[in-house]
Protein backbone atom coordinates (compact mmCIF):
# COMPACT_ATOMS: atom_id res chain seq x y z
CA UNK A 1 0.00 0.00 0.00
CA UNK A 2 2.78 2.46 0.95
CA UNK A 3 4.50 1.68 -2.32
CA UNK A 4 1.44 2.71 -4.31
CA UNK A 5 0.69 5.79 -2.21
CA UNK A 6 4.12 7.32 -2.24
CA UNK A 7 5.66 5.81 -5.34
CA UNK A 8 8.98 5.56 -3.51
CA UNK A 9 9.84 1.94 -4.31
CA UNK A 10 9.82 0.41 -7.78
CA UNK A 11 9.38 -3.15 -6.60
CA UNK A 12 9.43 -5.20 -3.43
CA UNK A 13 12.94 -6.40 -2.67
CA UNK A 14 13.65 -10.07 -3.11
CA UNK A 15 17.13 -10.15 -1.55
CA UNK A 16 18.79 -8.68 1.50
CA UNK A 17 21.04 -6.36 -0.59
CA UNK A 18 18.03 -5.03 -2.42
CA UNK A 19 16.36 -4.19 0.90
CA UNK A 20 19.34 -2.03 1.88
CA UNK A 21 19.35 -0.26 -1.50
CA UNK A 22 15.63 0.35 -1.25
CA UNK A 23 16.05 1.72 2.28
CA UNK A 24 18.84 4.00 1.09
CA UNK A 25 16.66 5.14 -1.80
CA UNK A 26 13.78 5.78 0.56
CA UNK A 27 16.04 7.72 2.95
CA UNK A 28 17.36 9.78 0.04
CA UNK A 29 13.84 10.64 -1.09
CA UNK A 30 12.78 11.49 2.46
CA UNK A 31 15.75 13.86 2.74
CA UNK A 32 14.72 15.45 -0.55
CA UNK A 33 11.15 15.90 0.71
CA UNK A 34 12.51 17.41 3.94
CA UNK A 35 14.62 19.85 1.93
CA UNK A 36 11.57 20.88 -0.09
CA UNK A 37 9.58 21.46 3.10
CA UNK A 38 12.44 23.55 4.45
CA UNK A 39 12.49 25.67 1.28
CA UNK A 40 8.74 26.21 1.47
CA UNK A 41 8.99 27.23 5.12
CA UNK A 42 11.63 29.81 4.20
CA UNK A 43 9.36 31.21 1.48
CA UNK A 44 6.50 31.53 3.96
CA UNK A 45 8.75 33.19 6.52
CA UNK A 46 9.92 35.68 3.89
CA UNK A 47 6.33 36.36 2.89
CA UNK A 48 5.45 37.08 6.51
CA UNK A 49 8.39 39.47 6.78
CA UNK A 50 7.15 41.32 3.70
CA UNK A 51 3.80 41.95 5.37
CA UNK A 52 5.65 43.32 8.39
CA UNK A 53 7.55 45.65 6.05
CA UNK A 54 4.25 46.84 4.64
CA UNK A 55 2.90 47.57 8.11
CA UNK A 56 6.04 49.54 8.95
CA UNK A 57 5.74 51.47 5.69
CA UNK A 58 2.10 52.36 6.35
CA UNK A 59 2.97 53.44 9.90
CA UNK A 60 5.68 55.77 8.57
CA UNK A 61 3.33 57.08 5.88
CA UNK A 62 0.77 57.94 8.56
CA UNK A 63 3.37 60.14 10.28
CA UNK A 64 3.81 62.27 7.15
CA UNK A 65 0.56 64.18 7.71
CA UNK A 66 -0.71 63.66 4.14
CA UNK A 67 -4.43 63.17 3.60
CA UNK A 68 -5.51 59.83 2.16
CA UNK A 69 -6.74 61.50 -1.04
CA UNK A 70 -3.50 63.46 -1.46
CA UNK A 71 -1.57 62.42 -4.58
CA UNK A 72 1.57 61.94 -2.47
CA UNK A 73 -0.23 59.52 -0.17
CA UNK A 74 -1.75 57.58 -3.07
CA UNK A 75 1.56 57.49 -4.96
CA UNK A 76 3.35 56.21 -1.89
CA UNK A 77 0.85 53.36 -1.54
CA UNK A 78 1.36 52.54 -5.21
CA UNK A 79 5.12 52.45 -4.67
CA UNK A 80 4.74 50.13 -1.68
CA UNK A 81 2.98 47.65 -3.95
CA UNK A 82 5.65 47.84 -6.64
CA UNK A 83 8.50 46.10 -4.84
CA UNK A 84 10.13 45.11 -1.59
CA UNK A 85 13.14 47.25 -2.54
CA UNK A 86 11.03 50.40 -2.74
CA UNK A 87 9.57 49.64 0.69
CA UNK A 88 13.09 49.17 2.06
CA UNK A 89 14.16 52.53 0.62
CA UNK A 90 11.09 54.22 2.09
CA UNK A 91 11.85 52.87 5.54
CA UNK A 92 15.43 54.18 5.33
CA UNK A 93 14.51 57.69 4.16
CA UNK A 94 14.70 60.59 6.57
CA UNK A 95 11.34 62.36 6.94
CA UNK A 96 12.49 65.45 5.02
CA UNK A 97 13.47 63.24 2.05
CA UNK A 98 10.16 61.40 1.77
CA UNK A 99 8.16 64.00 -0.15
CA UNK A 100 10.79 64.64 -2.86
CA UNK A 101 11.34 60.89 -3.21
CA UNK A 102 7.61 60.25 -3.66
CA UNK A 103 7.30 63.08 -6.20
CA UNK A 104 10.29 61.85 -8.21
CA UNK A 105 9.05 58.27 -8.16
CA UNK A 106 5.51 59.43 -8.95
CA UNK A 107 6.80 61.33 -11.99
CA UNK A 108 7.93 57.97 -13.35
CA UNK A 109 4.24 56.96 -13.40
CA UNK A 110 3.06 60.33 -14.76
CA UNK A 111 1.42 61.26 -11.47
CA UNK A 112 3.33 64.50 -10.86
Based on the model shown, name its key terms.
rod-shaped, single chain, disordered N terminus, mainly alpha, 112 residues, 5 helices
The structural domain count equals 1
- Overall 3D shape: rod-shaped
Helix content: over 70%
Strand segment count: 0
Strand content: under 5%
Q: Output the radius of gyration.
A: 26 Å
Topology as a string of helices (H) and strands (E): HHHHH
Low-confidence stretches: 1-5
Number of helices: 5
Verbal overview:
With 112 residues, the chain is mainly α. The chain has one domain (12-108). Helix content is 78%, strand content 0%. α2 runs antiparallel to α3 and α3 packs across α5 (95-108). The chain is rod-shaped, with a radius of gyration of 26 Å. The chain starts with a helix and ends with a helix. The relative contact order is 0.08.
How would you summarize this macromolecular structure in one to three sentences?
The protein is mainly alpha-helical and 112 residues long.
Topology:
Elements: H1 2-6, H2 16-62, H3 71-82, H4 84-92, H5 95-108
Helix pairs in contact: 2-3, 2-4, 3-4, 3-5
